[in-house]
Amino acid sequence: MKRWTTLLMMVCMLGVTVPAMATMSISKMRQNTRFLTDRMAYELKLSPRQYNDVYEVNYDFINNVRYLMDDVVRGYDYALERYYDFLDVRNDDLRWILSGAQYRRFMGAEHFYRPIYAHENKWNFRIYLVYNNVNFFYYGKPHHYTTYCGGHYRTHFNNVSYYKTHCRDHYRHDVYNGHFRIRHDKMTYDTHRRRDFNVAVRSFSKDQRRPSAPQARPDRPKRDYNNKPDGRPSRREQNSQIDKKRRENKRTAPSGSNVKREDSKKEKNSNRSRERSGSNSNERCATRVRTV
Asked: Is residue 268, in this structure, part of any structural domain at all?
């Protein structure tokens, strides 16, 4: 009994200490989003409205990349590029929520600015490297913790940030205008990619088809049966000639009715010739008798 109790406790501890998994459920995603947003609110001194808006931005980011991370860890180039595209969108949305000073502190913290990393072919959130107690929160749940489902993501607003166009009346602070995009240039992108995932990039696309059958070796080219060096016809030519002769024979061969007609004509002709020959023989006999 004690062994089963110990095993059950170990399983529960693993479920708590490893909150980020490949198949992340909605509830687990909300929990990770809340934990990340809670620590951002604590370190960056966010207001209640900023806290709720940052939760939305983090939710959209994690929701977009959670099905992509397995291919990111494998090093597929399309997945890495899409991941950092989603991350740049998230960091761009945060510019309109955070003040300039808050955004600089945000960029200086890797567990906020680049929240996901990979280690030993597994991905996780950097925030859990800094804060170990995953059950402790400084603030309560956002007011739309269970109701927000991505309604403020920029694809619903012609790819323009919702927080740029709808939050000007609420946030009157200065906006950070420096370089914040990770894909700003190739050097920055490669540097952050190595620090985050450290994988060998492989070219692969989900739309790519399976590789075709291997071609013939260059030292053993395919034989061309239509071109013979000795001038003899190929098998295809021979077969085509045989088929052609068969078709011609079928066309020229008489039908069954024609054959019967010809046979009847032959029989009539033979009967007539016999009758003629019989009459001639009788006449000859009569002439012989008369002459005798």
From this structure: no
Task: Tell me the C-alpha to C-alpha distance, in Å, between residue 270 and each of 75, 278, 284.
Answer: 96, 12, 21
Residue 238 lies in a domain: no
First to last CA, the chain: 145
pLDDT, tens digit only, all 292 positions of the chain: 455 555 555 555 544 444 444 468 899 999 999 999 999 999 999 999 999 999 999 999 999 999 999 999 999 999 999 999 999 999 999 999 999 999 999 999 999 999 999 998 899 999 999 999 999 999 999 999 999 999 999 999 999 999 999 988 889 889 999 999 998 888 999 999 999 998 888 876 555 544 444 444 444 445 555 555 555 555 666 666 667 677 776 665 555 566 566 667 677 777 676 666 655 555 554 444 444 4
Is residue 273, in this structure, part of any structural domain at all? Answer: no
Kindly state whether residue 219 falls inside one of the protein's structural domains: no
**Owning domain of residue 133:** 15-196
**pTM of the full structure:** 0.64
Report how many domains make up the chain. 1
